[in-house]
């Protein structure tokens, strides 16, 4: 299938590893001129040939730095992937252990970063009939599984996608959401990250815990999702092949969510 993306321009947030890096790789392979942003510019991101911008996207200043530089570098934005999320403040904590500063930090990164990048990109996206994909999570549909602030922020991000699709669809901008289940990234694989902390919390050895995830999470396919599979879905939705798809939320979770 020809996605017809050659010579388009894109901004991808949270691009240094995981789903963001896989998305940058897929876009550059399709001939897209990409700006990728994260706090750390990894060798893997540099190797993609994308333009890179180091910025803390949990702050308004960081997003301004990214979007000002991206607009200069690219001359305009056709495609925006609001992928950055989770981050340092998503921990397996209950509601009573989640104080106001943590709620604020989680919302800054998981919701307001997308609000701010989208606001800055919209004039260009409207001019170019562009497209946005926001990366949410099945936590927006399964909030009981926690962590509480993250799930609430992702539910808000999914709702934001629908609002944006409604408001800017008539001006030619499509907005869709991708909601992954467990994906093989550092969120789970880093022993000091979320997965390592969840494993420690249940008294399990990290590697053994990772092995048990498909069964423990009820993943119908029996395996977790690869970042490249999420990237393929994101890039399809960005492309004109998906030209009449907008305001949707696409779950990619191997069958974890059992409801309609
Ligand atoms: N992996 C999963 O199982 C899963 C499931 C559902 C949804 N998701 C969602 O998918 C998205 C990507 O997750 P992932 O698994 O690929 O995560 P990841 O491997 O931890 O990558 C996160 C990316 O975001 C960047 N980042 C984190 N904090 C940042 C900040 N303050 N400013 C700028 N960049 C920042 C990281 O780079 P630096 O640390 O260098 O800044 C990195 O490039 C997130 O929105 C996450 O919520 C993931």
Automatic annotation (TrEMBL):
<dbReference type="InterPro" id="IPR002347">
    <property type="entry name" value="SDR_fam"/>
</dbReference>
<keyword id="KW-0560">Oxidoreductase</keyword>
<dbReference type="Pfam" id="PF13561">
    <property type="entry name" value="adh_short_C2"/>
</dbReference>
<dbReference type="InterPro" id="IPR036291">
    <property type="entry name" value="NAD(P)-bd_dom_sf"/>
</dbReference>
<protein>
    <submittedName>
        <fullName>SDR family oxidoreductase</fullName>
    </submittedName>
</protein>
<comment type="similarity">
    <text>Belongs to the short-chain dehydrogenases/reductases (SDR) family.</text>
</comment>
């Amino acid at each position: 299938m020809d996605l017809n993306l050659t010579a388009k321009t894109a901004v991808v947030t949270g691009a240094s590893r995981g789903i963001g890096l896989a998305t940058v790789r897929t876009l550059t392979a399709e001939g897209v001129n990409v700006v990728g942003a994260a706090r750390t510019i990894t060798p893997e991101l540099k190797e993609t040939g994308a333009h890179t911008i180091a910025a803390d996207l949990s702050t308004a200043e960081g997003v301004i730095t990214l979007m000002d530089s991206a607009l200069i570098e690219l001359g305009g934005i056709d495609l925006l992937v609001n992928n950055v999320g989770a981050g340092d403040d998503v921990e397996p904590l209950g509601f009573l252990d989640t104080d106001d500063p943590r709620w604020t930090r989680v919302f800054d990164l998981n919701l307001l970063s997308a609000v701010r990048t989208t606001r800055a990109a919209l004039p260009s996206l409207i001019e170019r009939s562009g497209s946005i994909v926001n990366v949410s999570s099945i936590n927006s549909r399964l909030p009981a599984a926690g962590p509480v602030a993250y799930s609430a922020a992702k539910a808000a991000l999914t709702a934001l996608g629908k609002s944006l699709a409604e408001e800017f669809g008539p001006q030619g901008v499509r907005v869709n959401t991708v909601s992954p289940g467990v994906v093989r990234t550092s969120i789970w694989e880093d022993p000091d990250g979320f997965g390592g902390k969840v494993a420690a919390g249940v008294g399990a050895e990290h590697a053994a815990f990772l092995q048990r995830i498909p069964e423990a999470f009820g993943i119908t396919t029996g395996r977790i999702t690869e970042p490249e599979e999420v990237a393929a879905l994101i890039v399809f939705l960005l492309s004109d092949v998906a030209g009449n798809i907008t305001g949707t939320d696409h779950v990619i979770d191997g069958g974890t969510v059992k409801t309609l």
